[in-house]
Amino acid sequence: MKRLNIPNLIFLVLGFIGIADTIIVRVFVQNMDLGVLLPSVIGVFFIILYLRPLWDKYYIKLNNVIKRIIYWGFLVFLIIFIIVEGCIILGGVYKPRPEQQPEYVVVLGAGILGNGMPTLSLANRLERCIEYAAEHPDTKIIVSGGQGRTEPMTEAEAMARYLVDRGVEPERIILEDRSTSTMENFKYTREIIGEVDEIAFITNNFHIFRSGMLAKRNGFKAYGYGAPTPGIVLVNSYLREFFALIKSLLLDY
Prior knowledge:
Blueprint: H1 6-28, H2 34-50, H3 52-60, H4 64-91, E1 104-108, H5 120-135, E2 140-144, H6 155-165, E3 173-176, H7 182-193, E4 198-204, H8 208-217, E5 221-227, H9 234-251
Parallel strand pairs: 1-2, 1-4, 2-3, 4-5
Helix pairs in contact: 1-2, 2-9, 4-9
């Protein structure tokens, strides 16, 4: 009998887990975005590793320079991935707090469903906002989010309705209904509140590090308050945020 190849078996199991994650999460989310797709892409990569006996003979024939490029390219990517994901995770854990509460708190949009209700991630942000509003009754609330292609209204309007339905005074709520990205959340908020320097913002934990960076680029000293990320999209959200952070580092100015 051939000895069981445990590493190979692990690759196969991880591959099917990644593909299954995409299939399951797709049932619970509105759109097939990068976060939904990434686990299956990684799963396919592990299955390719599992099938190495089929293609290894072709790899061996490659020029040594090409082999080194593949090896070092993958190693550099892996190191960058670990560092960036570490920043994302720690950004949601270590959050400085202001000595005096800012005049405004910004709730960042995260998509709404076809019936106008918030997605799971956005609902968690709004519930965190309700807690924050009760703790700081003088703070004005800016709900920030425009209208996506499949959304029946702006995210700002849906967020305002959710908060008002749960007892938040409508006169405290300001709508920023043009933004389509995190960068624009803060850009258009800046246009609304003018020269205010300090703000608080509410988003999911995985999103705090990048949001704080983009708030700073818009001239804010911003303090992030994290909401839980729904378990069904937890892995997907952190994977997607890696690429979103790289994009923001390079392009969001």
